[in-house]
Amino acid sequence: MPKQHRSACPVSIALEIVGDRWSLLIVRDLMVRGYRTFREFQQAGEGIATNILANRLRRLQSAGIIVAEAEETDARKLNYRLTKKGIDLAPVMLEMLIWSARHENTAAPAALITQMENNRAQVLCEVRRRWRERDQTPLIPKFDEPRRTR
Question: Which residues contact 71 (CB under 8 A, 6 or more apart)?
Answer without folding.
Answer: 77, 78, 79
